[in-house]
Write a structure and sequence with these properties.
Mean pLDDT: 93
CATH class: Alpha Beta
CATH topology: Nucleoside Triphosphate Pyrophosphohydrolase
Radius of gyration: 14 Å
Distance between the termini: 30 Å
CATH architecture: Alpha-Beta Complex
Number of domains: 1
Length: 139
């Protein structure tokens, strides 16, 4: 089974919980996620993927919050709650080396907003999982 890490950044804006998301120029709106390298811990993979895709540097020891086997792909996604020392802007672009180099457009997405058709089904599944987690744990 393919395993992926999903580093999660959350912020509270007014009374709304928001999650870091981005628009991929070829594949719509997404959450940061990526592969675990050989001999890499899941925690380090989450920190690395967050930096590679967004430019943000997570603190050491992100907190594992759960895993989800996606219905559509049977991939096993491992979610890690990350914290950063800097304040991330409301929006920004970041050039990522994925697929030969792509510019990702980052933004904060309300956890309780229903995802539009711009979101791929696998990320809609992930958002439902995360919404349930944060509603239960009141982060």
């Amino acid at each position: 089974m393919i395993k992926k890490v999903v580093p999660i950044l959350i912020r509270r804006k007014a009374q709304t919980l928001e999650i870091l998301a981005f628009r991929h120029p070829l594949a719509g709106m997404q959450l940061v996620k990526g592969s675990i390298e050989p001999n890499e811990t899941y925690e380090n993979a989450a920190i690395r993927e967050l930096f590679e895709e967004s430019g943000l540097i997570a603190r050491d020891n992100p907190k594992f919050i759960g895993s989800l086997v996606l219905k559509s792909t049977q991939q096993d996604w491992f979610f890690y709650y990350c914290e950063i020392d800097q304040t991330a802007p409301d929006t920004w672009t970041y050039f990522c080396l994925d697929d030969g180099g792509l510019t990702f457009e980052f933004f904060w997405y309300s956890m309780h907003e229903e995802p539009s058709e711009d979101w791929h089904e696998i990320f809609k599944e992930a958002l439902t999982f995360l919404r349930t987690f944060f509603d239960t744990h009141k982060k």
